[in-house]
Write a structure and sequence with these properties.
Blueprint: E1 3-8, E2 15-18, E3 23-32, E4 43-47, E5 53-58, E6 64-71, E7 73-80, E8 84-85, E9 87-94
Parallel strand pairs: 1-8
Antiparallel strand pairs: 1-3, 2-3, 3-6, 4-5, 4-7, 7-9
InterPro entries: CarboxyPept-like_regulatory (IPR008969)
Protein name: TonB-dependent receptor SusC
């Protein structure tokens, strides 16, 4: 049985920090949905609504990640790691 990845974002679901008038960044934490242990080296992808790659990052030893300099808009957020199900967080809106 595949394990499930849990996105834990600062704030409610996603902490989106304005870098400039047109760019934002996404910060978050990846952890195991069962035991809440951080998952390091998870791949986090930011995708357009048609699943086209925009940007990405890897989580650090604490499971945290940051994707910087993202244009304002709506995106899909995906996290993956070996032996875990791929998780999609739909409709992440950068403001």
């Amino acid at each position: 049985m595949k394990r499930v990845i849990l996105f834990v974002f600062a704030g409610i679901l996603a902490a989106i920090q304005a870098v400039s008038a047109q760019n934002t960044s996404v910060k978050g934490k990846i952890s195991d949905a069962t035991n809440h242990n951080p998952i390091e080296y998870a791949n986090v992808l930011l995708l357009k609504s048609d699943s086209t790659f925009v940007s990405g990052a890897s989580s650090d030893f604490e499971g945290t990640f940051e994707i910087k300099n993202v244009l304002v808009g709506s995106y899909l957020l995906s996290a993956s790691y070996l032996s875990y199900e791929i998780l999609y967080q739909i409709a992440v809106k950068m403001v």
